[in-house]
Amino acid sequence: MAKPPGKCIFCGQFGLSKEHIIPNWVRQLIPRGANDHHLFTIARDIPAKKNQTPHIRSKYVRQGHPGTKQVRRVCKKCNEGWLSTLEDELKPVLKELISGSSLVLTPWMQRRLATWATKTAMTAEFIDPKSAAIVFAQRDYLRLHRDPPQEFNVWAGFYTSNKYSSSLYHHSGYFSYETKIYKKGSTSLNTQATVIIVGRLFLQVASCAIPDAQFRLKNEEASRPRRIWPPSDSDIDWPPPQAIGNDELDIILMGLHRAFEATD
Ligand SMILES: [Zn+2]
Question: From ligand 1's centre to the CA of 135, what distance in Å?
Answer without folding.
Answer: 15
